[in-house]
Structure formats: C-alpha cells, structure tokens
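Hi everyone, sorry if this is the wrong subforum. Our group has a chain we'd like a structural model of before ordering constructs, and none of us has done structure prediction before. Sequence below.
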Amino acid sequence: MTAMAGYIDRLQQTRDHSGLRNICTACGHGGTARDPLVKNLDGHRIHRSHTTDPRSGFYGQQQGG
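Answer:
Right subforum, don't worry. Here is the predicted structure as tokens:
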C-alpha cells in the first residue's frame, strides 16, 4: 500500500479522539518540541527520532508532505 501524505490510520484516528493524539504509538511517551510526533507510512503518530534512527524498525518511514 502506498501511503499518501497526510494519511491517518483509522486506529490512530480513534486514539486521537480518545485523547492520545500526542502519545507515540510506538513507545507510549508523549511528543515534545525536541522530538515531535510525525506520521509514519502506516498512518500512526510516532516520534520523529524513531524515523531517523537506523536502529529503529521505523527508520525512514516518515510520511512526506
């Protein structure tokens, strides 16, 4: 599946509406100004550091746009 910029998964939408919009789906910690949440290719909000760390399973998976 090719993710479009701005795509948010239905499960992430449910998390957003239940007050977890700023909680990382990958690790459960809140986003910060230094390490904000971004959308991964599957449409979940995760820390930017997860997408930039080559040791992470989410490396390179930040949505563009």
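For your construct planning: The first strand starts at residue 37 and ends at 39. Helices lie at 10-20, 48-52.
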